[in-house]
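Hi V.,

You were right to ask for the full record rather than a summary. Here it is.
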Amino acid sequence: MNSSNIQIWYSVPENINLSSESSQNKFQVKISDNTPELPAELEQKVADSLTNASKNGKNVTNNPILFLKEPVVEDNGTITMNTDVRGFNYTYAFNRDKNLYHLVDELNKNKLLSISTHVHLLTKDNKLLFGTKKNQFNQISGFSGFPNVDEDSDIVNGERVLDVYKTIVNRLRPEIGYLVDSIDSIIPLGITYVNTLGLRGTDNDFLVKIDEMSYKAKKRFEENSQFKKELHSVDFEPKKVNEFLLWANSNGRVMSRYAMGCVYQEVMNQFGKKEGKKTFEIIQQTGATIAKNNQTKYFHRN
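Predicted structure:
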């Protein structure tokens, strides 16, 4: 059986608002202090990939990011994701370098799927905002990006964790500017995996409510290194969202698979399974394939 483009690996079972205090959150991303060493031959492949990138004029910034190591754990009302830390070099090598696309078994065995963040903004007048990513084939998309562990980690009960609230703020600021200061609440939604060569990975999805009207946000939004000036807005109501999904994947337009996974997650979270099922079916009509489970062997015991 072919693996679906979009896979919903985990959905948060309730509506949780993140606190700016890491210790108060029921949603935790733990960071291991013992990231396992990789086989020497894999390390060499990464080194060779970076050497080739440099020769071709590409500057790969090796910020410390997170890699998902285990399935999500729910215990006594707390949701925990367990992660390892490695440099961005590894995501570049295995998910950007076409010469290494085929090493899926090695990626699974050594837990080399990075986990980024994906945010959809919900305005004061109940509209979702989407941008156009000029650095990713002009796809219609949400916002945010890879956590920077050096900047965004914290210690809670003696364990290193990602300060998720701070992560969202830090990742959004260079993309949405002043709108960061109007954040009202951050709702975690779950994990979406995208099985697209060159962009393969997992996202932690979030719905971020902002205390700003959509027309003001669209007027004041500024073009930046990742996004064009224009923002798209859609009423956050299932029927309108589903219509937008079809529009965003027609007449030459393309919506990010990560964004579509996040749309499904937020409809499920805010409107329930009945409406989520309709959105799931609409996503299939766009030409994407979507599954509500992990169809990879990523968490299999080796």
